[in-house]
Write a structure and sequence with these properties.
Elements (H helix, E strand, L loop, with lengths): L8 E5 L4 H11 L3 E6 L7 H4 L23 H7 L2 E5 L5 H11 L4 E4 L3 H6 L4 H7 L4 E6 L14 H8 L2 H4 L14 H24 L4 E5 H8 L1 H10 L12 H20 L8 E3 L5 E4 L4 H11 L14 H6 L1 H12 L4 H7 L5 E3 L3 H5 L2 H5 L3 E6 L3 E6 L4 E2 L17 H7 L4 H9 L5
Parallel strand pairs: 1-2, 1-4, 2-3, 4-5, 5-6
Antiparallel strand pairs: 6-12, 7-8, 8-9, 10-11
Length: about 425
């Protein structure tokens, strides 16, 4: 039996989780997926589970995963693919990938917009090579707005910033846990679905197009039951939930803080955890390549003295002396407000825990049209969460509001050859409303 996507060729220029998983879905159904990796570093996802050489397999830079000699995480996200090494920063590497794309059907990537431009892998360049190409791009925060080039992971953009942990919390009982790639896997399905839709359009028209998915948008979509309410009412969860007695909340928060602190201080990477600010907000650092960001981070917190301190000058040293570093960082973050830290941490992977009102007014969400307004015959002008899959040439639209009960029964039956006499009989028999 032929496989569903047999004959479809995919070039996968991505790392970590969401886009590799989207490409894996295509590969599972028979697509020939070529996964491009750097000839020296490879895909960084290979080492997250293995722990960058300092922990047993299964204990990565964030301290997650069951110890095992089997790199099950890499297998899960990259089965059914072929690996090709290319240095895309060099013109020679770019020429090789162009040759691969001449006969490809799909290109997928999670490089940031400025990186795609730098490596000459932007859509305008690639569609000149292959006008039929489906170009799938996943970003953290969308391709417009001030944070379009900010580093992002699902935990910082899809999870924290969309408001998911806020809505999974109760007063005094904050959401304290997250599972690796939890949001990436949903974003992967969105991207794969978008690619498949674009392939279907190409089958009918012969024309390729861009498929655009953002982690933040997918997070808002996952929370759309609550986001939809906030969009039409302007109210936050805290505006209507019944609060327990203040002393009970304080007692619960104190206990939760002690438990969270216990787990945090057993985590090997102080650059991948939560910190509380002066105004009581939570910032989530997620530097899964900590050595890459250590120097920049020390400057951001105005503690340049830490950079070459032998206790902290390498990832291995920071793991060994993490208790001391956690204490320093806890004190540092408590010294400034959230707004201060947002400006200082630019260029470092971090997320802010937002509430519903903050999420629906997020400048990135607004700049990238993650919400859509339309006219409702009863309610007037309202807003809703836009479809998280953006197609450049055949975009999703809102053509009608949700139907009233049985609104279209007669219309649909008439379209399918039923007469008015037969429709009346069906109503008299209670078969239709």
């Amino acid at each position: 039996m032929a496989m569903a996507l047999e004959g479809i060729k995919v070039v996968d220029v991505s790392q970590v989780a969401a886009v590799p998983m989207a490409a894996r879905h295509l590969a599972d159904f028979g697509a020939d997926v070529i996964h491009i990796e750097h000839p020296q570093r490879g895909d960084s996802w290979r080492i997250y589970q293995a722990g960058q050489g300092v922990n047993p397999a299964g204990r990565g830079a964030g301290g997650y995963g069951v110890a095992s000699d089997i790199n099950y995480n890499w297998e899960n996200f990259n089965r059914n693919k072929r690996s090709v090494t290319l240095d895309l920063s060099q013109e020679g590497g770019q020429q090789v990938v162009y040759k691969l794309l001449e006969k490809a059907d799909v290109f997928v990537s999670n490089l940031r917009p400025f990186e795609l431009k730098r490596y000459k892998l932007d859509y305008d360049t690639l569609c000149q090579i292959n006008p039929r190409l489906i170009y799938g791009c996943l970003t953290g925060y969308g391709r417009k707005g001030p944070d379009r080039n900010a580093p992002a992971y699902d935990i910082t953009s899809l999870w924290a910033r969309s408001g998911i942990p806020y809505m999974l919390s109760l007063p005094g009982v904050p959401c304290s846990a997250f599972r690796a790639a939890f949001g990436d896997n949903v974003a992967a399905l969105a991207l794969a679905y978008g690619v498949m839709t674009a392939l279907f359009v190409r089958e009918r028209t012969g024309v390729g197009q861009e498929v655009d998915v953002a982690l933040l948008h997918v997070g808002l979509y996952q929370l759309s039951f609550d986001i939809a309410g906030a969009l039409v009412t302007g109210q936050d969860y805290a505006d209507w939930i019944e609060m327990p007695p203040a002393e009970l909340v304080a007692e619960a928060e104190a206990a939760t803080h002690r438990i969270r602190d216990f787990y945090k201080r057993n985590s090997p990477n102080p650059l991948a955890t939560l910190y509380r600010t002066k105004d009581g907000r939570l910032i989530l650092l997620m530097a899964l390549q900590p050595d890459r960001y250590w120097s920049k981070f020390c400057r951001a917190i105005e503690r340049e003295d830490l950079e070459h301190d032998p206790r902290f000058s390498s990832f291995e040293a920071r793991v060994e002396n993490r208790s001391a570093l956690y204490q320093i960082m806890d004190e540092v973050f408590l010294g400034r407000t959230l707004e201060d830290w947002k400006a200082r941490l630019e260029g470092i992977p971090f997320g802010v825990f937002q509430n519903l009102v903050e999420a629906i007014n997020d400048p990135q969400a607004r700049a990238n049209d993650f919400f859509v307004a339309y006219d409702h015959p009863t309610y007037g002008r309202i807003e809703a969460v836009a479809n998280p899959v953006k197609l450049s040439k055949t975009p999703a639209t809102i053509r009608m509001p949700a139907p009233t009960f049985s609104q279209h029964t007669e219309e649909v039956l008439l379209e399918h050859g039923f007469t008015w006499e037969h429709i009346v009989q069906l109503k008299d028999q209670g078969i239709i409303a």
